[in-house]
Amino acid sequence: MQRDNFVEAEDAYRRALSIAPDNNKMCNLGICLMKQGRIDEAKETLRRVKPAVVDGPRGVDF
After folding, report:
1. Is 25 a domain residue?
2. What's the pTM?
3. Per-residue pLDDT tens for 6-54?
4. Which letter, b or e, does each residue of 32-56 get, where b requires 16 or more Cβ atoms within 10 Å of its Cβ?
5. Within a domain: residue 59?
6. Residue at 29 is within a domain
7. Which domain holds residue 29?
8. Coil, strand or helix: which one is 21?
9. Which residues have C-beta within 8 Å of that of residue 17, sequence separation ≥ 6?
10. Distance separating alpha carbons of residues 17 and 14, to the nearest angstrom
11. pLDDT score recorded for residue 9
12. Which InterPro entries does the protein's record reference (predicted)?
């Protein structure tokens, strides 16, 4: 995504997600879609991001 080729990046993130889904890839795909002006698709993609696991009363404890 560093070279602003969001169509190519979208394809790469979709392929990567099909192999090993995770929140980082899903968020980056959402950003690619937003940068292309595909806001509704971006919103739907970002809604599929799973919330982080909370380990303690303040959130994730390190």
Report:
1. yes
2. 0.78
3. 999 999 999 999 999 999 999 999 999 999 999 999 999 999 998 866 5
4. bbbeeebeebbeebeeeeeeeeeee
5. no
6. yes
7. 6-47
8. coil
9. 25, 26, 29
10. 5
11. 96
12. MS5/SDI1, TPR-like_helical_dom_sf
